[in-house]
Design goal:
This protein has about 290 residues and is an alpha/beta fold. It has a single domain, classed as 3-Layer(aba) Sandwich (Rossmann fold), CATH 3.40.50. The chain contains nine helices and nine strands. The strands form two sheets. A seven-stranded parallel beta sheet has the order 3-2-1-4-5-6-9, sandwiched between helices. The chain has a two-stranded parallel sheet with strand order 7-8. Strand 4, helix 3 and strand 5 form a beta-alpha-beta unit. Helix 1 packs across helix 6 and helix 3 runs parallel beside helix 4. The longest helix has 21 residues.
Length: about 290
């Protein structure tokens, strides 16, 4: 089965393409950057061009849409360009997928739709954060993600498109892990983002599961590693360092992520396999020191 991956030359997309090929999919990477060291067929594509995009999309049955400007602070694009481009591309992709009666579309959204993580962030409305947390975007990147999610929901409700939107936190790759051991071990204060992250290979695995277990609606999902990337016990650290944040329930696990992925587990049977603190314990033979001890 053919799957189009827009933005397939990007950092996170490498794991996605690799996983899909390993599972027997034929993948088509649509991007304006030639890929380096990744599988699949590459086609140069300006995703704003319906006249070019439609002909390629007619060759496939499913899509993973990752091809947007990745953030509001690139230094290359103005804020209004980020918003306008990402909304235009996202809505066109969803519209064409609906017209072509695609079996499934995966949309890569962001944790920033909750107003949480990255610049301009505000304290969460409640903890833990699940998919029912109010959407409160604080920058043009997350504003566009909410707009495209809404367009995808419209296409699902009015045109029968099946869409899974994944609100991703910071996505970690193998190259990012080693230098963080010392940083975490000497942490003196809890980070304001509460250590939320997910591994790229776990994202790719869930995307594949979502393609294979289709639901005839629009659904949004959080993904996260099981434990936060922190040495500071979360409940204690929030109370000490961020008293304006809501408090976690009594009995919350010492490092358990506050970004809940129960819905992805229930719908797809997904569990994150990669956990930074497990690697730390294996290497160091202990938990991180915590509070810079």
């Amino acid at each position: 089965m053919k799957v189009i991956v827009t933005g397939g030359s990007g950092r996170v997309a490498k794991a996605v393409l690799t996983t899909l090929v390993e599972r027997g999919y034929e993948v088509i990477n649509l991007d304006r950057r030639p890929p380096v060291d990744r599988p699949g067929k590459f086609i140069y594509m300006d995703l704003r061009r319906r006249d070019l995009l439609q002909g390629v999309m007619e060759q496939a049955e499913m899509m993973i849409h990752m091809g947007e400007i990745p953030g509001a602070r690139s230094g290359v694009h103005t804020e209004e360009e980020v918003y306008a481009s990402n909304c235009a591309v996202g809505s066109l992709v969803m519209q064409l997928a609906a017209e072509l009666k695609y079996k499934r579309v995966i949309y890569t959204s962001t944790i920033q739709t909750y107003g949480f993580q990255d610049y301009g962030m505000i304290p969460p409305a409640r903890l833990p954060v699940d998919e029912n947390h109010p959407l409160r975007p604080q920058n043009t990147y997350s504003l566009a993600k909410v707009a495209v999610e809404n367009y995808a929901r419209y296409c699902a409700e009015k045109k029968g498109l099946s869409v899974a939107a994944f609100r991703l936190p910071w996505v970690m790759s193998d190259q990012m892990s080693d230098h963080r051991f010392e940083r975490v071990d000497n942490e003196k204060k809890l980070d304001s983002d509460l250590g939320i992250y997910v591994k790229d290979t776990d994202v790719a695995e869930c995307f594949a599961l979502a393609l294979e277990q289709q639901r005839p609606v629009f659904e949004a999902y959080n993904l996260s590693a099981r434990e936060a990337m922190t040495s500071v016990p979360l409940r204690e650290g929030i109370a000490r360092d961020f008293p304006s944040y809501p408090q976690l329930p009594e009995g919350w696990g010492k490092y358990d992520t506050v970004y809940r992925y129960d819905k992805a587990r229930a719908h797809f049977g997904w569990e994150p396999k990669w956990n930074f603190l497990e690697l730390f314990r294996k290497k160091m033979g202990r938990d991180p020191k915590g509070f810079g001890k």
